[in-house]
Design brief:
Blueprint: H1 4-12, E1 19-24, H2 32-35, E2 40-46, H3 49-53, E3 61-65, E4 81-87, H4 98-101, E5 102-113, H5 134-139, E6 144-153, E7 159-167
The structure holds S-adenosylmethionine.
S-adenosylmethionine binds near residues 25 and 51.
């Protein structure tokens, strides 16, 4: 089942022209598969080839198998994406590089676990848990915050998550 928050955010954009959407650490494609259509050209990147194999031949989805956490430059074009989604993935050392991938006026929608989640289940490792307000701290200097939530969600299972939307450039 896809993330309802992510799908709602994209729907609220009311996309009418063809756009490029990047699903960063796309996993089994649960979010990008329902989003891909003739107007939304998806690039999905993840290091897990087995997961990617499940949707690599679908129309409107270009898959890339790549380890995003090495020193190697990401095989992604700068200023190429109208929308970037990141769900349930956190790698702090390179997180700010997402901004360079966004087109001017592009949108970033980020949803992942935050501190407090360890009481409910995995992840419990602080490396994978956002600190209080962290998405705002990381992105709001360069991107305009559109929405922010940090708290309990009951989607799929009880967990503590941050969900934040940003826009590049001026509204
Ligand atoms: C919890 S899953 C989330 C997948 C997807 N975003 C979703 O919401 O269903 C985390 C994903 O991050 C990917 N991942 C973890 N480390 C990675 C790395 N170093 N490079 C690329 N992908 C990585 C995993 O393969 C996995 O598919």
């Amino acid at each position: 089942m896809y993330s309802k928050w992510i799908i709602n955010q994209i729907e609220s954009l009311q996309i009418k022209k063809r756009i490029n959407l990047l699903d960063f650490a796309s996993g089994s494609g649960r979010n990008c598969i329902p989003l891909s259509n003739k107007n939304i050209s998806v690039t999905a990147i993840d290091k897990n080839q087995e997961k990617i194999n499940q949707y690599k031949s679908l129309n409107n989805i270009n898959t890339i198998c790549f380890d995003l956490e090495t020193n190697e430059e990401w095989p992604l074009t700068r200023e190429n994406y109208d929308v970037i989604i990141v769900v349930n993935y956190l790698f702090r050392p390179k997180i700010k590089k997402l901004i360079n991938l966004l087109k001017k006026d592009g949108f970033l929608f980020y949803e992942t676990f935050s501190v407090g989640n360890e009481k409910f289940g995995f992840p419990k490792n602080p490396n994978f848990l956002l600190k209080e307000g962290e998405l705002l701290d990381v992105f709001a200097e360069e991107l305009l915050p559109l929405s922010f939530y940090d708290g309990k969600t009951e989607e799929r299972r009880a967990s503590i998550k941050q969900m934040a939307g940003f826009k590049k450039g001026v509204l």
